[in-house]
Backbone:
């Protein structure tokens, strides 16, 4: 019997971490989409993303999103339709993201819990460096111009 010395060839008995639930919002205004930049020194630091954050135990994704946008940007939103649901396996963690369309209700964004924020149009979006988990949604946003309209007041 031969012993395998190469750790990359051995099966790990280490259990995979539980996925982290994250809610993210696509806030559109006047044909522009709100992005936030992650703080440096954090997981994926410096990358741009759709604003949102981790869901607390017992919290719905929609409630999580309203709370996170208030904490990170000082804005209040109405949460609309679910646009995309993605589970992405990063080397150090697994995230389960739900992306919702949102309508800005009140307040102008402020960089309270993020490094910066930007309103970007469809052609500018490709110049922003977003995390790999957002790739499928980015493709959808590039293809579907109808997604770039503001949400109606009735939602």
Residues:
């Amino acid at each position: 019997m031969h012993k395998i010395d190469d750790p990359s060839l051995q099966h790990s008995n280490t259990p995979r971490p539980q996925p982290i639930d994250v809610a993210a919002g696509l806030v559109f205004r006047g044909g522009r989409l709100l992005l936030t930049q992650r703080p440096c020194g954090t997981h994926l630091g410096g990358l741009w993303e759709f604003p949102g954050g981790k869901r607390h135990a017992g919290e719905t994704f929609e409630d999580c999103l309203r709370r996170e946008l208030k904490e990170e940007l000082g804005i209040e939103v109405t949460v609309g339709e679910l646009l995309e649901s993605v589970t992405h396996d990063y080397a150090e963690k697994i995230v389960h993201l739900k992306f919702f369309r949102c309508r800005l209700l009140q307040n102008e964004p402020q960089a309270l819990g993020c490094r910066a924020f930007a309103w970007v149009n469809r052609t500018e979006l490709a110049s922003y460096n977003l995390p790999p988990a957002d790739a499928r949604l980015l493709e959808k946003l590039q293809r579907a111009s109808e997604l770039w309209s503001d949400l109606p007041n009735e939602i």
